[in-house]
Write a structure and sequence with these properties.
It comes from Paracoccus saliphilus. Pfam families: PriCT_1, Prim-Pol. There is one protein chain. The protein contains twelve helices and 18 strands. The chain is α+β, with helices and mostly antiparallel strands. The protein has three domains: about 170 residues, no CATH class; about 55 residues; about 110 residues, Arc Repressor Mutant, subunit A (Orthogonal Bundle). The strands form five sheets. A six-stranded antiparallel beta sheet has the order 7-8-4-6-5-12. The two termini are about 50 Å apart.
């Protein structure tokens, strides 16, 4: 499915286009019941959404006010035949972990906030919020979800299929039953339940969009205790954890999955040389598949791509060269008015204290870090 959305459309243009109106028919053709949603608040924009059908989805799209909605909602479970694994955290490592647990699927979606959704064929699953200990994952076998190409105006980006499309819905696998066996809360003595739930809430808070989501998650996990806390006690734990998260003092919620190569590159540059990291990301976008490319700081600055002064671009380039993220194939020449020729090369660590620089030609050499 190709989202019907120009990346640089103004807010007024997007309203006139009607994201919902332009895409509802394609979902209806696939037999999926959709309805208009308010994407910013993640709320249905129409009453009776639970009774949505492909026919009603088309009808709502023909009504100007509803058709102008920026989002498409899907009724999960039996009406659509879909179950969603909502990976409520950013990073490829979380997606890989979810696919390993729930099985491969031909459809993976990136949300507007950079998180992920995995689609499977519905097989009786219900709605479970944070049922797995220590994992920012929800199982949506009922309720609703927001589907591509819904647009978040506050974030300036859209939901998108990163793998597969609507044509793959007919080929979705089911989730293995044993993958859905919730990890029950560990057995704890009376007097320890509050502390256990609070610590769990702290680890989950950084993956929740708001305090209400965290309260919902804590209620689900609290129910797994042999002797659950009262709902008010569970809510107090959630609100306390959210207060620490909101103040930036949640040090219990910083556990990360295995780092990806992108994470390591970010750690190498972002803390002390953020401009170099920004330039590296831009060069990857423009030249990832090229063996060589020119880099002209003055022309880049004049074109506003990136919109930095020439000297800042030169400094960022030099940092990438010094740290082995960029290889200079031919130096710039003022006399000949020629820009330098470069290639991308992520450094690969070999042993302790050395970096192996791998160039596009395949040749490599070791260097000690500066």
């Amino acid at each position: 499915m190709v989202p019907v959305l120009p990346s640089e459309a103004s807010c007024a243009e997007r309203c006139l286009m009607g994201i919902y109106a332009q895409n509802a028919a394609e979902y209806a053709d696939s037999g999926i019941p959709v309805f208009p949603v308010d994407t910013r608040n993640k709320r249905p924009a129409v009453k009776g959404w639970q009774d949505a059908t492909p026919r009603r989805g088309r009808l709502w799209a023909s009504i100007d006010q509803l058709g102008a909605a920026d989002g498409l909602g899907i009724v999960m479970g039996k009406p659509s035949g879909l179950t969603e694994i909502d990976v409520d955290a950013v990073g490829d490592a979380w997606i890989s972990s979810a696919l390993k647990q729930f099985g491969e699927t031909p459809i993976v979606i990136r949300t507007a906030s950079g998180k992920a959704k995995l689609w499977y064929r519905h097989n009786g699953e219900g709605r479970q919020i944070r049922p797995f200990h220590g994992q920012p994952i929800d199982v949506l076998g009922s309720g609703f979800t927001i589907a591509p190409p819904s647009w978040r105006d506050d974030l300036g980006t859209a939901y998108a299929f990163t793998k597969g499309s609507l044509s793959d819905v007919a080929n979705l696998p089911t989730i293995p039953p044993d993958a859905l066996e919730a990890h029950a809360a560990e057995t704890v003595r009376n007097g320890k339940r509050n502390d256990t739930l609070w610590r769990w809430a702290m680890t989950q808070a950084r993956h929740c969009d708001d305090v209400e989501t965290l309260i919902d998650a804590c209620a689900t996990w609290n129910a797994a205790f042999p002797d659950p806390l009262t709902s008010s006690e569970a809510e107090r734990c959630a609100r306390s954890a959210w207060k620490y998260e909101a103040m930036g003092r949640n040090y219990l919620g910083l556990k990360k999955p295995q780092l990806t190569e992108g994470d390591r590159i970010m750690d190498e540059l972002l803390m002390d040389e953020p401009l170099a990291h920004g330039l590296y990301v831009l060069l990857q976008r423009w030249h990832r598949n090229r063996q060589a490319f020119n880099l002209a700081p003055r022309a880049m600055s004049d074109a506003g791509n990136p919109a930095w002064p020439r000297r800042q671009i030169e400094h960022a380039r030099d940092v990438l060269l010094d740290r082995g993220f960029l290889v200079e194939l031919a130096p710039p020449s003022k006399a000949k008015r020629q820009s330098g020729l470069y290639s991308l090369s992520a450094p690969k660590r070999q042993g302790r204290g050395c970096i192996m620089i791998v160039g596009e030609s395949g040749k490599s050499h070791l260097e000690a870090p500066a």
